[in-house]
Specification:
Blueprint (H helix, E strand, L loop, with lengths): L12 H6 L12 E3 L3 E3 L5 H19 L4 E4 L3 H13 L5 E5 L18 E4 L3 H7 L4 E2 L3 E4 L2 H14 L3 E5 L1 E10 L5 E10 H4 L11 E4 L2 E4 L10 H8 L10 E3 L1 H11 L1 E4 L2 E3 L3 H6 L2 E2 L5 H19 L1
Parallel strand pairs: 3-4, 3-12, 4-8, 12-15, 13-16
Antiparallel strand pairs: 1-2, 5-7, 6-7, 9-10, 10-11, 14-15
The structure holds ligand AHZ.
Length: 308
């Protein structure tokens, strides 16, 4: 039979020599000499493409059926992912993030300033992650919000049961009737974010799907894409109307978000500031403890569903 897709050969000795390198095809002479003789192992350009493509599309293939999909990789979504994936290594956790850069608003504190304020007792989560802070009594301050976000991102992505597709938007929810006749969220509908933003400029660009028994929505408050699931629940008739986020009140807002974190419709757990739009609770502004504690609670709720 004729191979339609040829195997890429290891860069040949000839090619290696042409590039001024010596080697026998598998063992290349490399040099980490920074004084003008730094030599890399040779590569065929297509090897780079295939190294990425096969991993990415294998990942998409496998995660088309996931145990949990987390929508949004802001402070709430990442806190949920960390607690969930660490405590249940048997569950496949798939994070979908619309932006190229995961982290949501948690690269900064408030008004584009870098320090991040976390009210006690949520500082315990920082200690668990190994993020240093200054203690101010009732609250602690991380010197730069990016220190929290970079640390939790690196820990989440290192967990073997977690994958993240960024630059990918959740465009819709899969909603099915369960055996009791109740409407149940059973997964998400995805598209590349660049496509999701261009549905008005091109003819139909159909999406893709990921099924999961539990979806955790952590898409933040209203914005270009925010409060996605809360709004979609309204347009599908599963929620009568949006509560709409109320004005800033730190003391009311933070406990309301954490204590309100729950399965808002069967199969869909909501966490973080998206809940303020769903429930009509206050915003807290630049204090992040509620995002961490709400993410952890969403993870616990998810585990409870899998254990029931
Ligand atoms: O890109 C969004 C962000 O990274 C992502 N997202 C939104 N819609 C999406 C969709 N598909 C995939 N349809 C989507 N991803 O969700 C992430 C939300 O992160 P965030 O930081 O905006 O929300 P959060 O709830 O994790 O943290 C909120 C932080 C805030 S806002 C606030 C206030 O305004 O008072 N206070 C705090 C602490």
């Amino acid at each position: 039979s004729v191979a339609l897709v040829p195997e890429i050969q290891e860069p040949s000795v000839l090619q290696a020599k042409k590039n001024g390198l010596s080697g026998n095809g598998t063992h290349y002479e490399v040099s980490e000499n920074y004084d003008g003789d730094y030599r890399f192992a040779p590569i065929e350009e297509a090897q780079v493409s295939r190294a990425m493509i096969k991993r990415y599309f294998n990942m998409m293939y496998e995660r088309a059926v996931s145990d949990v999909v987390i929508v949004g990789a802001g402070s709430a979504g990442l806190s949920c992912a960390y607690h969930l994936a660490k405590n249940r290594p048997d569950l496949s956790v798939t994070i979908i993030e619309a932006n190229v850069a995961p982290g949501g608003g948690a690269w900064l504190g408030g008004q584009l300033m870098t320090p991040m304020v976390v009210r006690k007792p949520a500082d315990r989560f920082l200690t668990e992650l190994g993020v240093p802070f200054e203690d101010e009594g009732a609250f602690v301050v991380v010197k730069h919000a990016a220190l929290f976000t970079a640390t939790i991102l690196s820990k989440v992505l290192a967990l073997p049961n977690v994958v993240m597709m960024n630059a990918t938007a959740v465009e819709d929810l899969i909603v099915r009737e369960d055996f009791q006749g109740r409407q149940r969220v059973a997964g998400v509908v995805t598209n590349w974010t660049l496509v999701a933003l261009n549905h008005d400029t091109q003819s139909c660009m159909d999406p893709n799907v990921i099924t999961a028994p539990v979806v955790v929505s952590a898409t933040g408050h209203d914005g270009p894409m925010g409060a996605f699931s809360a709004k979609r629940l309204v347009s599908t008739g599963l929620l009568k109307e949006l509560g709409n986020m109320r004005g800033l009140d730190m003391n009311r807002a933070e406990p309301a978000i954490v204590n309100g974190t729950r399965e808002v419709v069967p199969g869909l757990i909501m966490t973080g500031m998206e809940l303020s739009e769903h429930d009509g609770s206050n915003r807290m502004g630049p204090t992040f403890g509620a995002m961490m504690a709400s993410g952890i609670k969403a993870a616990r709720e998810t585990i409870r569903i899998f254990e029931s």
